[in-house]
Amino acid sequence: MTRDDIFTKVRDVLVDALAVEEEEVTPSASLVGDLGAESIDFLDIVFQLERAFGVKIAQGELFPEGVAQDPKFVKDGMVTAEGLAGLKSRLPHVDFSTFEKDPRVTNVAKVFTVDTLVNFVEKKLAKQPA
Amino acid sequence: MRWMWIDRVVELVPARKLVAIKNVSLAEEHLHDHFAADPARGLAALPVMPASLVIEGMAQSAGILVGHAEHFKQKVILAKISRAELARDAGPGCTIRHTATIERLDAQGASTRGVIELFDHAHPELGYQPMGTIDLMFSHLDNNQGGAGRSGEAFPEHNFVFGEGFKTLLRTSGVAIPD
Quick check: B17 and B112 in contact, CB under 8 A? Predict the structure, then answer.
């Protein structure tokens, strides 16, 4: 499956899960900021990606879990260096380069774009036996 | 008793399917307002079951199915109406049948599919006719307080979701409540 094919399926999932128009789903669109995703939508997106691509996605594999509640990861509302390292290792499909410049915990949600999902699925499918 | 929008569970296949019925009655007060006559516009009263309450009936049906699958240990909260399409109205004397199936269930929550059908007792030969579809998402509240973008709000320890109303419904439907 090409990256374009993956994008098309991801877009269909987001159009359905978030009730947005196809044109709004651009690679750089942020799920929360641009497409209006709320917390439960993340679970919906995981369920729908599993169905669309025939994969199993574990809790915390695509989106982070419990970051804000872990004192090692967050101090004074900022993600610590240890937290950032943890996020990077747990979420290799996410581009944290912009987030690193302003690592407020409230900015974590912004790093999830349409491209993040495409990256995730691409890596996930590559790991599957042909 | 909590507002219940299903009268009886008629079939339960644990963790897979639940079928429930709701008899629409003119004794239900809201039917008199939904929709009341409007003489100024020359409109007669049109008592029909509000679509929002049909959705709530499906939420209760699917919610019981999801709760039962986890022995009612989880606080199962309706989190999202993914899709709701109702093509027909249900008036007094009709029976609504909710068939909920689990599409996906895990520690965080569940997604369900729902089919709504209508039985018009004036035309029993037609049997149950399609009325619509309602797909829902449920969150297991205790497993979803710590994730990204979530509130971290505290909720009571006891399972306030499956209270006496649900227990009575299950008991009168002959459904055993798992330990």
Answer: no
A40 phi and psi angles, rounded to 5 deg: -70, -25
**pLDDT tens string B140-171:** 887 765 433 344 456 666 777 788 888 889 99
- For B63, B76, B138, the CA distances from B51, given in Å and listed in that order, are 18, 22, 19
Q: List, by residue number, the catalytic residues of B.
A: 34
Instruction: Please list every residue in chain B whose beta carbon sits closer than 8 Å to the beta carbon of residue A17.
Output: 82
Closest CA–CA distance from residue A19 to any residue of chain B (Å) = 9
pTM confidence score: 0.83
- Which residues in chain B are closer than 8 Å to A18, comparing Cβ atoms? none
Asked whether the beta carbons of residue A40 and residue B107 sit closer than 8 angstroms, the reply is no
- The ipTM estimated for the assembled molecules is 0.74
Q: What percent of chain A has pLDDT over 90?
A: 54
Question: Which domains does chain B carry?
Answer: 8-172 (3.10.129.10)
Q: Which residues of B touch A50 (CB under 8 A)?
A: 104
| Domains and their CATH numbers in chain A | 1-60+112-130 (1.10.1200.10), 64-111 (no CATH)
Distance of residue A69 Cα from the nearest chain B Cα, in angstroms? 6
Q: Is A99 helix (H, G, I), strand (E, B) or coil?
A: helix
